[in-house]
Write a structure and sequence with these properties.
438 residues, 6% helix, Thrombin, subunit H, single chain, four-stranded antiparallel β-sheet, mainly beta
Length: 438
Amino acid sequence: MYQKPPMMSKKKRIELIILICIIVWIIIFMVNYFRYSDSKPLFLAIHTTKKYDDGIVEEYISLGYIYRSYQRNAIKKEELVPFWVGRENPKALPDLPVVPTDYDIPENRGRLDKYRGILYYYDKSHELVGTYKCLNSTHDCNKAFGGHDQYNTVNKDPLTALTSEHVLGTIHDKFAFVDDSVPQESEYGDLTYSRTIYLYQYSAEDPKILAKFADVKESNYDEDKEIASGDNSWYIVKSMDNNKWGVIDIKESGEIEEVLPYEYESISYDADTDYYILCKDDVWYIYDLDKKEKISNDMSDPIYNVWRNANITYYFKTGKERTVGSDSFIDYKIYRLEDGKIFLNVDRVTQIHETPKYIMYLTNTDNKLHFIDYSKEEKATIQLYFSEMNHNELSHPAFSIRRESESFVSIDVYKGRELAYDYETIGVNLKTWDVDKN
């Protein structure tokens, strides 16, 4: 005979419902915790935004807890807290500093860039049109020079490395980058350094800071004026928020337009080809910013530069830092841009100098300077005494270029690393490939 199963008591049903609710809550909480860890919005949450004078706070209110993302100048952080924990509200900080205007301007007879802690700006007629009084330090602000990233690819090559930085020129005869980096005193009383770059409107009628960056790099260089400039008013700048590089366009109105987002570990500009060399997530490639397209394969090694030969075939150079025994060097390689095929891959190439007609390279296996054309035919060699190219005020490189033209190049070959050693000058006729010792 069929017996009806006993009914679950009301108390048991309530306990089961509570248990199920607890399990569902735990599952939702775990999902939301992992989403919070990845800085993602919460699942099954009410989204609200609270505005402040210096930014916003986004809140995602879920089942008993709140995820907050503080996007203010006064506070930048994320938190996952119980619903009864109130929102933090520190005093709002101004987005950009206000420049002083009530100061005496000493007469700058020599028209120096900086005089008595004040930067001077002149027009094309050499008339004073604006000044900037250092904000963070009385003496240490300057008209900004080109900075560099962690790879410093543009200034890595000992043959072409800058002996002094390029100062960035004025923009639209209205604006300039100012390096005002050294605070007079930190919160704890110690002097600290953190590069601070302002984009400054220097007109005497309305001087003001337009933007703040963690660094700025030149994207072109005017050799006639001997100042750094932008490529079509495009400048490579580093964001204060995430310390990533991007490219901005500075309009004549003072409007700043983002051309490349702030998401790159390295950006450099190649003036010979107008291409940009980008590194994102440790992947390197060459980019045509005018056409907004990638024009090279992805590379794992840093890309140093790109050029074209006399036949308008494009090449690019990579360099990987290596240490073998006691020798440390950059192992250079050359690729053809159009198909990504390797053009030069010789063991332990420590220096490459490229021209439209030939390539000159040095290895530390034979201490020889090799000259090859773009058919890979070796045209000449010069025996060196050593292969180390990095040098300072106390040491010599293996060689340096004394003079170079379309038909002739002269090389100073040093006989030893120490400054006491002499050098000999060797000339190479680039038409006949004769090598002469002077």
